[in-house]
Amino acid sequence: MKININGVTRDCTPEEETKILDERSKVTVVEKSYGEDVADKKASGKQKLKDLGLDDAEIKALIGI
Fold this sequence. Notes:
This protein is an alpha+beta fold. The chain has helices spanning 14-51, 56-63; strands spanning 2-5, 8-11. The model has no long low-confidence stretch (mean pLDDT 92).
């Protein structure tokens, strides 16, 4: 794996490569968690609107889901 620091491209050391791969996996976990959280909040919000008496057509007209 190559790394570019201040315009200088070189091969990564094994330690740098391990650190990069670990950070990438953390980002993937955070992105997945965020996506699930957004989906949960949308479903929760839609259910709250239904609980207030709105039907599916009214909800779609308001928020598009």
